[in-house]
Amino acid sequence: MTANEQDPPRRASLELLRAEASDELAVLIHERLRGGEDPWDFMEDLPSVDELVVLTLRADNIAENGGQRPNRARNYRVLRQIALDYPPLTRAVWRILGEEEPHRRWDASVRLDAS
Fold first, then answer.
1. Is 87 domain-assigned?
2. 37, 66, 92, 95: which could join 32 in a potential S-S bond, CB 3.0 to 4.6 Å?
3. How far apart are CA 37 and CA 41, in angstroms?
4. CA separation, residue 33 to residues 22, 26, 30, 40, 88 (Å)
5. The domain containing residue 84 runs over which residues?
């Protein structure tokens, strides 16, 4: 077995993943602006490009696991593996791990009320 056969399979290069995430983020911003939202109200709630890449890689892992959402321990292992596979994403992984429920933070269907 060669060293390349031992490496985990990668979805794409980090540059391509970042470009795709940047395009997706631009679409999210555009849609929210078209919906009449004030950018001052939502921009800081959006993920960074790297955080979006991490969440996309996490979603790919969930899909590979039959769509079953990971429990807290498995989620930690998946995100940790993403950081090991893509070292430049380590900071984004740790930011996401620091969130209480990272899978819900940027969900457009979730609205936090100040009540």
1. yes
2. 37
3. 7
4. 16, 11, 5, 11, 30
5. 70-107
Determine the average pLDDT of the residues in 84-91. 96
- The verdict on residue 99 lying in a domain is yes
Which residues have C-beta within 8 Å of that of residue 105, sequence separation ≥ 6? Answer: 45, 47, 99
Domain count, the chain: 1
The per-residue pLDDT of the chain, averaged, comes to 82
Instruction: Confirm whether 35 is domain-assigned.
Output: no
pLDDT tens-digit readout, 12-68? 799 999 999 999 999 999 999 999 999 998 898 899 999 999 999 999 999 998 888
* Contact call for residues 50 and 25 (beta carbons, < 8 A): no
Residue 62 lies in a domain: no
Q: Are 44 and 75 in contact (CB under 8 A)?
A: no
pLDDT: which is higher, 9 or 74? 74
For residue 48, which of 22, 30, 16, 23 has the smallest C-alpha distance?
Answer: 22
